[in-house]
Amino acid sequence: xxxxxxxxxxxxxxxxxxxxxxxFASQGDVAVTFLHVQHIQRLTSWTEATYxxxxxxxxxxxxxxxxxxxxxxxxxxxxxxxNQLCVIENSPFVDSTIMxxxxxxxxxxxxxxxxxxxxxxxLLGTSTANLVGQSPVPVIAVPGAYRATKLTALLxxxxxxNLEPELTRVVELAKPLGASVELxxxxxxxxxxxxxxxxxxxxxxxTDYPVTVHLKPRDVETTLIAxxxxxxxxxxxxxxxxxxxxxxxxxxxxxxxxxxVDYSFLTTVPLLVFSKA
Length: 277
Known about the structure:
- The structure is a single chain.
- The protein is of the alpha/beta class.
- The protein folds into two domains: 142 residues, Rossmann fold (3-Layer(aba) Sandwich); 123 residues, 3-Layer(aba) Sandwich (Rossmann fold), CATH 3.40.50.620.
- Helix content is 43%, strand content 23%.
- The chain has a ten-stranded mixed β-sheet, with helices on both faces.
- Helix 6 links the parallel strand 6 and strand 7.
- Belongs to the universal stress protein A family.
């Protein structure tokens, strides 16, 4: 059974990730955990026992709020909840708490709603970007406007540098969903491999699952993200899949921001990011 962890701050925007996770779970054997992280303040005059009792009371209140919030999303989708759990974590550190919980509970995917971000937010990081850039657990960033639809087509963008292990993970995801797999490679003039048939033959060596190969030339006058968006508009995939080399630190994000992190701010379809490591 796959496990998906969905984060929510009770905002309307966070419902996008919840809708995606519920739809994903409805198409396979998937357990969904809904996680809300909040910081429960402590007065300096309180004893350990006083704070422990207060913390327990506040967590119980928050869990009831979360259960009602989750229930409203299931109701709007007309889906009956199965294999779902509501969890409250007390911590001032939201991103690290999400990653710790995901790793400690052997979660397969973290699902979070994406927000647009201004320049300073991009440099300092939002929760979505921080998770994409740092989480060892694959992250699904879902645009706020997402509406639940059956997952039927996966678009996997590849630089062909690590094709076998990456394709294995994509196919492993696609099979239980019964979804098609489209492999997109954006080529440059300096590349040795420019024949899509060569790529198809390489794909067939690694999997017998049907994979459609798209070899598109890069438009040097636009960004890589703009090139990907053009393909998305034409193909209309249910999910975009990227693999990224994760980096940490302020100046790495400033100077060497990965395409996956950049795209998490702009995505128009749900984006699944695996770490190349």
